[in-house]
Amino acid sequence: MNRTDRLYALVEELRAVSPRPRSARWLAARFEVSSRTIERDLGALQEAGVPIWAEPGRTGGYVLDRARTLPPVNLTAAEAVAMAVALHRLAGSPFAGPAATALRKLVAVLPAADAAEAHRLAGRVHLIGDGPATPVPATVADAVAARRVLRIRYADRAGADSTRDVEPLGYLGNSRHWYLVAWCRLRDELRCFRTDRIRSVGALPDVVARELRLTDLDIPHERVRPLSLV
């Protein structure tokens, strides 16, 4: 068991028996490491803000306050990014700092693979200003997360429809709209599609191999920032 997994397992072990204590010797035997290693791990958890304290005495040990901790959080990558988008709208409010701290705590308790996927998905979202209010079709959202090619029927600003296959690369949002940033196979170039102009959408089996870079967007870089989970 690596250290990250052991730290997570230590918290869950102490949560399971709370308010009873577990000694460092008992925990060392449970995780097949030395008592000194367990004490270092518990110290690291305490420094990270986990409410663990030591009870002295022959029957003492380490105790976790389960009332001040969360059980395992099974957020999906999309759920974590959704929270980040929602919290972005608090920018400039008195709650911006606490909101960012809350998000970091949630991401920190995700399994490593889920956290990595959440960061990858967040890296495909770029915001201008306070972020958009218009909805994104569920099929579009699913395709961006799953890296699947879409066939869309799209209306341009004059209302003329066209059907095209696009490779979803991410999102761009401003104060009014969400845009799907995608490689358009019809035009053979990067395009932004306003999501409220997508008349119909279907997922194709093709997998998207391209990646979106901020430099690909024809927008002054100082106006755009990638969504962050930290």
TrEMBL record:
PANTHER family: PROTEIN PAFC, PTHR34580. It holds the Pfam family WYL. Residues 138-201 form the WYL domain. This is HTH-type transcriptional regulat or YobV. It comes from the Bacteria. PROSITE patterns: WYL. Residues 6-62 form the Helix-turn-helix type domain.
